[in-house]
Amino acid sequence: MTSYVSPPSVDSDDQSFAFFFNNWVINNGMYHNFVHEPGNKHLIASIKAFSIASLSKNSSDRRLLTLAQYQYTTALNLTNTALRNPAQVLRDETLLAILVLTNYETLTGGVERNLSAWEQHINGSASLLGLRGLEGVRGKAGRVLTLHVITGINVVCLLRCLPTPPVVHLLQAKIFEFLYEPDNPVIRFQRLNLDCADFRHAVTCGLITSPEAIIARAAELDLRLTTAFAGVPQGWDPEIIAHSVKRHHVQAGLPGFELSRIMVNEIVLQSIERDTHVHRSAWGHSHTIVRQCQTEILASMPQYTSQSGEQLPWSGFKRPVRYFVPEAVSSSLPIMRALSGYGVLWPLFVAGTCSTTTSEIRNYVADVYGYFGEQLKIEQALVLRQMIWSLSGATSDPRPGSGSVLKNNTVHGEYNK
Fold it and tell me: Are residues 24 and 171 in the same domain?
């Protein structure tokens, strides 16, 4: 008679780390010894919190979410302690801990994340980059992590019509000394996207007031954006009318490209009176671009909401052949891939709030956010859906900090009860 032998028990920490590296890390083929270093308790706690929250979403287990909340509080306290330590605040591990916690907050929706809250979050990130300085981008991990933070800063600056912090320009220029890839459309795009945010700030703050100057600068930036994505490599073109892409770096780049073109041309629509033939022509041209880019963003949504597994490109995102920052693959620290749908959350928000939006488009955007939140378990999407609903009566307002039709609505996300 054969007796049953129970399998060896698996430590919960081992389970959470295994889940994190298997499902969320691009360079998971490398050995990451940071888990054994005593100075990385804040990073380890951050990974535990995010991993347990992910497991709770994956298994619909609310008990795990309670444990994740406890781990998040622990990680937050440890990270704040690290930020007050002159040595720890400069380490790549501390920057990674902050990025992991940001992803936790996006996944759970447990922290207020309206545009004002994101602005405060970004101010803190920019201050941290300033403390790290150029030394913070000497190594591969530091460069990749810093570029992650810069991308987040740039999106919020675009939406809020804020100037790009000078340190961000300095650090990105230094990073691109190591990432020289003239044939990579995303790198070409990232090089100039900070200028788009600065242009919107200059117009809303009255630094550029002449209609002719606004039109000329917008046309210049839009040409540079389209040139960056001209002659793209094979595999970048959508396969069907409802766009579907199978490569992580394409999925990460195209929505941001469309967002930037909308932001650049939206400022023209807000600032130019249609009082002359030249102004009417420029206004109409920008209006066409905004509508076109809005359509491109909306056309990419079915690949996320399709019920047919064959049409979903998750395998390509989970194990990308390459990342848009090649150094991520050989980084000494784990580099997280984007949350499913996270890379399109803000472009989708812009598509649902720009001047060409109709009630039908707004309702569709709200439905997509509902799918991201309820099916993909990304709670921040439900916060953005609430913002879309609250903006239903908003009008364009190009004042500093207002974004496109974005107001300072306070929306609170809540943990699952």
Answer: no
Which residue in 322, 305, 186, 315 sits closest to 254, CA to CA?
Answer: 186
Residue 278 to residues 73, 292, 306, Cα–Cα distance (Å): 57, 21, 44
Residues 157 and 285 both lie in one domain: yes
Has residue 410 been placed in a domain? no
Tokens read off for 194: 């900070």
Place of tokens 């809250």: 117
Compute the distance between CA of residue 122 and CA of residue 68 in angstroms, rounded to an integer: 24
pLDDT in tens, the chain (417 residues): 455 544 444 456 777 777 777 777 776 665 566 666 778 899 989 999 988 888 887 777 778 888 888 999 999 999 999 999 999 999 999 999 998 888 888 888 765 556 666 667 677 888 899 999 999 999 988 998 998 889 888 988 998 899 999 999 999 999 988 876 767 787 888 888 899 999 999 999 999 999 999 999 999 999 999 998 887 776 666 554 455 544 444 455 678 889 999 999 999 999 988 889 999 999 999 999 999 999 989 988 887 776 554 443 333 333 333 344 556 655 667 666 654 445 788 899 999 999 999 989 999 999 999 988 888 777 788 888 988 988 764 433 333 333 333 333 323 333 232
- 59, two tokens: 């298994």
Q: Do 227 and 321 lie in a common domain?
A: yes
First to last CA, the chain: 48
Asked whether residue 413 is domain-assigned, the answer is no
**What residues make up the domain containing 106?**
11-110
Residue 6 covered by a domain: no
Q: Is the CB of residue 158 less than 8 Å from the CB of residue 190? A: no
At which residue do the structure tokens 């490109």 appear? 313
